[in-house]
């Protein structure tokens, strides 16, 4: 159960991680800065990379987290439903088309 996961634990997950899917929904302690840092590490990772990241109902996450995650090349699917208010297109993407829509909604260049 990940609800009590902290920024430090997320940082540990990013070190040489071979995770493909990660669901951290309901992690009320995660901060936007930690998710932005995690996305940066994912973008430069070597080997198998995270492809699906679910962060629903994480109240500290908003635009900066969405911008970092949508710009992260390896991440194919992401859900930020029920986090801080975001443009509708940026709350969930599941393929290249919806990811491109999220990029446009956030004014972020497509990876």
Describe this structure in words.
By secondary structure, this protein is of the alpha/beta class. 35% of the residues lie in helices and 10% in strands. The protein has helices at 7-14, 32-43, 63-70, 96-106, and strands at 21-23, 52-54, 77-79, 92-93. Strands 1-2-3-4 form a four-stranded mixed beta sheet. Helix 3 (63-70) links the parallel strand 2 (52-54) and strand 3. Helix 1 runs parallel beside helix 2 and helix 3 packs across helix 4 (96-106). The longest helix has 12 residues, at 32-43. The chain is globular. The chain starts with 6 loop residues before the first helix and ends in a 5-residue tail after the last helix.
Helix coverage percent of residues?
25-40%
Strand/helix succession: HEHEHEEH
State the strand order across the main sheet. Answer: 1-2-3-4
For the record, give the distance between the C-alpha atoms at the N and C termini, rounded to a whole number.
32 Å
**Shape, principal axes of CA atoms:** globular
As an assembly, this protein is single chain
Number of helices: 4
Low-confidence stretches: none
Structural class: alpha/beta
Q: Provide the β-strand percentage band.
A: 5-15%
User: On the 0-100 scale, what is the average pLDDT?
Assistant: 89
